[in-house]
Amino acid sequence: MEPSARIRAQRALDVAPALDAMAEQLPFDDDSFDAVMATVTVHQWADVGRGLSELRRVAREAVVVLTFDGDALDRLWPAEYVPELIAAERRRYPLIDYLSSIIGKRVDVREVPIPIDCVDGFTETYYARPEQFLDPRVRAAQSAWDFVDEQANHRAVEQLRAGLASGAWDARHGHLRTQPEFHGSLRLLAGQP
């Protein structure tokens, strides 16, 4: 499902089409699916509780949610360079306990390690490639930067640029460049009725 016509139009022709629908009002009967999944989306919903309740309503068994733990966002180096980004993200991500309370009576919460070669564009995928944040296209592809004012954005980029040029970033965080995976804020929740 995808409520944005623009994003639906960008889907590849060889994949199943996305339905024009929102999580808060699913167009399916109760218990329509064995399992349902929401991936890196709950922070975008207008009413998280209603959306998760809808997922629980249409799932006979598992409700799976891939999201971020706001309490763990400061594990990564951008917290030093752009604390405004971390603060914006923390406000957007619902608490893991809140999500768990809605998606099931038994909920398994797992930390998902991020591999060094992850190609998704969320912030933590660049844990070993800080230079990517110097590219305005990378920042534009991450919705969190929309919540950081231009002055803070500029300051963060210039501090990062200077830290990379001087070697200060590598002195402090260089070990990340060869670390096979990063244990950050990505979480997988699986709730059973």
Question: Can you put this structure into words, describing what you see?
Answer:
- With 193 residues, this protein is an alpha+beta fold.
- It has helices spanning 5-9, 48-58, 78-81, 83-92, 96-103, 136-140, 150-166, 168-173, and strands at 36-39, 63-68, 106-111, 114-115, 181-182, 186-192.
- Helix 2 links the parallel strand 1 and strand 2 (63-68).
- The relative contact order is 0.18.
- One of its GO terms (molecular function) is methyltransferase activity.
- Pfam families: Methyltransf_11.
- Keywords: Methyltransferase, Transferase.
What's the layout of helices and strands?
Layout (H helix, E strand, L loop, with lengths): L4 H5 L26 E4 L8 H11 L4 E6 L9 H4 L1 H10 L3 H8 L2 E6 L2 E2 L20 H5 L9 H17 L1 H6 L7 E2 L3 E7 L1
Parallel strand pairs: 1-2
Antiparallel strand pairs: 2-6, 3-6, 4-5
Keywords:
two-stranded antiparallel sheet, alpha+beta, Methyltransf_11, 8 helices, Rossmann fold, Class I SAM-dependent methyltransferase, four-stranded mixed beta sheet, methyltransferase, SAM-dependent_MTases_sf, methyltransferase activity, 193 residues, 34% helix
